[in-house]
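Hi L., both proteins are below.
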Amino acid sequence: MAAYLPILILLVLAFLFAAVSFAASALVAPKKRPTSAKVAPYECGIVPGIDPPTRFPVRFYLVAIIFIIFDIEVVFLYPWAVIFHQLRSFGIIEVGVFAAAVFTAFVFLVGNGALTWGPSKRLVDASPARTSSSTIARIGADRVRRVEPTTAPAGPGQAA
């Protein structure tokens, strides 16, 4: 039990640090009160004509994940290549498992459209042109109201 005492002390200190940080931020943090200086345009003074985009597209994050995957792969493959002859068949098997995991992650990201930047092209079945009869068939003949042509009374200057 004595071997776990430093870990317990570290966990208690981490919890205390987090609790004190949240309490201090609640007490000391400035309150949000908008002023004309706070709502004014930042830096150059030019009022923006459009609102900035609020979110990045998901593809941006998927490309970032691909970059991290291959960056980590290089970090792990370089030391393996340095001691390749000492590892023998164990090293080959381990790097094969690692490469399979990286390739699986890459296939998953490509399958989710990480490298597809243009608009998606989809084939759409050609639908028949809409006509009055197709609209009546679609909404039901009982809901269609018939409009009878009426004759307008003859006004002055018009033949009756």
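That was the first. Here is the second:
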Amino acid sequence: MSRKIACITLDVEADFKDPGGRILLFEDEALLNRYARIIEENGAKVTAFLVTSLLDRYGDRYRRLGELIPVEFEIHSHAHDVRDPCSRVDIEAAVSAFRGFAGRDPTGYRAPWGNVTREGLDTLLDLGFRYDSSIYPSFRPGRLGCNNLHLPVGPFTITRDAKSIIEVPFACLSGVRMVFSLSYVKMLGWRTFEALMKVFPLPDQVAVLSHPYDHYFQLLPYDISGWEEPLLRRNAGSAFELLEKMLRFLRARGYEFEVMSSMCDYLATSPLPEFSIEKVIRERSR
């Protein structure tokens, strides 16, 4: 019987459109403690994907988070450049910076906006990464959109010749392929997801996405314009409560909380669907 495993992931990048590149979660002790308390009280663990250009500024605060809760660090690019999201140069810079922070090489990667490219996957395979967690197995229109309806909602393997890498997609409801993340739960409301998940369950292994600013968008002290603003602001004041509902829901459905490396330990012993790198990238770019 397949184990049900949930990884709570945090993409540690600058707050949404912050002109100073700040992360309020790591500047406000009360916010950090509130986040850590919810994680701890619900027996959860966190995998934090770091934008490594911010390590000089926040490295000590990341270590502080590690003192409060079980957290595993991996990389989320070096520059978080959505125009060239996962170039070899950027990934290599992230690996170097991460090595100085953590004293080891990273084993997991997440591309900015989930926009992993052929160059990015080739680089991860060349450098021996164990897993990627960048693919939305859904459809999203727009310049930074995606169309991954041909890919599974659960974990699978991407192959290139004799090399392979585990792909752990963003958590997504089967059938309707609705992304299950804190930002989507805020936008659509908990009752919507609660009703949908009775008919369209999550896969047995999931990586649940969140960003620091998802938890306190209403507190960002600068003007934000654009189509994303009203979507991110919806239910912003209830974000911590919604996070707790998500964690309680997962526990009630029999999910165990693990960090991504532990999930990959389990996945390495399980048969996974295989997709060649050409099939993943060719069909994603149509």
